[in-house]
Specification:
By secondary structure, the chain is mainly alpha-helical. It folds into 2 domains: 3-54, no CATH class; 95-160, no CATH class. 65% of the residues lie in helices and 6% in strands. It is built from 6 helices and 4 strands, in the order βααβααααββ. It has helices at 6-12, 17-26, 40-54, 66-88, 95-124, 129-148, and strands at 3-4, 38-39, 150-152, 158-160. The protein has a two-stranded antiparallel ribbon. A two-stranded antiparallel sheet has the order 3-4. Helix 5 (95-124) runs antiparallel to helix 6.
Length: 161
């Protein structure tokens, strides 16, 4: 059985001896025998597998279809462009835009809700519970109505309708 030295194997594989050592250290090189040489048959199989992987043949023998890969890539680019267009026309919004908008809306709502006690306390002092409940209900509905009228303008801002 023939054996190849590292230098000869590197020349046949069109690699440097340094790269052959790197492949060996990484466990990706061809198998060696007890004399630290490459058996010709095992080296040939390793080289064929390496060449096939470089030209688009998987380890299971399945070959890659270049035109199918190009079509898949083109579809991905078209889908990404469609999303960008929908975002530009205001149909879609980014997460950051929505975070900013909803944050502003809820902060405004919170501020108004926290201001209710100081606004209503002087008006409802010594009033019966039914009047207090009715006034609180009216104020809350008014606040929620204003909140429901907010519109997103597509630039991360909101405005009241």
């Amino acid at each position: 059985m023939s054996e190849l030295s590292q230098k000869t194997a590197a020349e046949v594989a069109d690699l440097t001896t340094r790269r052959m050592r790197q492949l060996d250290e990484a466990g990706e090189g061809p198998p060696r025998n007890a004399e630290d040489a490459y058996p010709a048959k095992a080296f040939g199989k390793w080289l064929a597998k390496r060449i096939k992987s470089q030209i688009g043949v998987a380890s299971d023998g399945r070959s890659y279809d270049l035109s199918a890969e190009r079509a898949r890539h083109s579809k991905e680019l078209a889908d990404a462009r469609a999303l960008q267009n929908r975002h530009a026309t205001g149909e879609f919004f980014s997460k950051a835009e929505l975070d900013n908008t909803l944050g502003a809306m809820f902060m405004t709502f919170r501020t108004r809700a926290l201001g209710l006690p100081s606004k209503l306390a002087p008006l409802l002092d010594k009033q019966p519970a039914s009047i207090i409940a009715a006034e609180l209900d009216r104020e809350m509905r008014e606040m929620l109505q204003a909140f429901s009228g907010w519109r997103f303008d597509g630039k991360g801002r909101t405005n009241e309708a």
